[in-house]
Amino acid sequence: MSGPSLGGVEVTATDAGFPTDIQLTAQALRLGAAHIAREVLNQCHRAATVGGITARQELEKLGISPRSLNELGVPNRNDLEELMHSTRSTHRLNQLGISR
What we know:
By secondary structure, the chain is mostly helical. It has helices spanning 26-31, 33-61, 66-72, 77-95, and strands at 9-13, 19-24.
């Protein structure tokens, strides 16, 4: 899964969230190491969440109950929505020079 280029950082990661490729622009380099690290981690986390949702759908098709999957901590669509909202909020705060 490849993440969108946020602040000049684009990460390609596996469904488990492991980065396989990282592309940086001059903009990302100007924003510094902390910005790059944050973006890499955010995009890897998003890839792992999407991968978990895909696995969840496959496991539900095999008859595993949503309750069991919740107890195991397998991500669902709400987790992705929360992650995307949090990422957008953090990105906006960073643009304003405010760190969380």
